[in-house]
């Protein structure tokens, strides 16, 4: 009997040690569910768990909640940038279409074609140059004055646009540069520490590409707006050459051209720089400069 009792006690002690070992393994891997099952299987209430273990799992839950919150904030930020980019892009295109409408209005006022590809100052026929025929009616001068008022309204809309979205466009350009440099820095550090994975590479490439596309959409829309305003000036200069020297319509067309040149309806990034097609090359130039600096400070041999 004594031998059987000692054997049963040894078996119980070994079982207890195995359970303790399993608990240690599960605790080291932060497997809360398995730990709770082991505690219940031994009849140990949860209230008697050591305070350090409770603190550890509190930190685990806090870390999980923090990670989830960070991911949610990141997704919300991406969604906000997507929405604001869409709004800026569409408003800039609307302003550009307004300038196109002014061009058509001016050409219709003088019975000419507004399309820059069709309209020309001279039409060569054989060895002669034929001027397009302009018809000046009683309402032509009034329509030109109305075009001037429409341009003033468009200029005010451009100023309001710059006031509202100038800071956003400025931050968007800075964010694009920082995202690209941060992605490159992450790739370089991951390559140096031998922890570079496909997931890291795809994440960096996707974030950089998304920000570059969004920023390119904004810049392209603002560039089209500026180009269309320049075409209005060219159209006014072409039309005024076809009018009599002393006519009021000619003077009004010159005033329209000077008005557009003087007010220069361009999109500005809060006054720091103008947003047009040249900004795309400037951004790539800045990024290329800092890429060279990052590569020089890295320890990777190419």
UniProtKB/TrEMBL annotation:
Organism, as annotated: Rhamnusium bicolor
Function: Gustatory receptor which mediates acceptance or avoidance behavior, depending on its substrates.
Subcellular location, record wording: Cell membrane
Lineage of origin: Eukaryota, Metazoa, Ecdysozoa, Arthropoda, Hexapoda
InterPro entries, per the entry: 7TM_chemorcpt
UniProt key word rRNA processing: no
Pfam family membership, one: 7tm_7
Membrane topology: Multi-pass membrane protein
Principal cellular location given in the protein's record: membrane
Entry's family note: Belongs to the insect chemoreceptor superfamily. Gustatory receptor (GR) family.
Alphabetical keyword list: Cell membrane, Membrane, Receptor, Transducer, Transmembrane, Transmembrane helix
Record's keyword annotation contains Membrane: yes
Annotated TM spans: 77-95, 164-188, 200-225, 277-297
Protein name stated in the entry: Gustatory receptor
GO BP terms in the entry: chemosensory behavior; male courtship behavior; sensory perception of taste; signal transduction
One GO cellular component term noted in the UniProt record for this chain: neuronal cell body
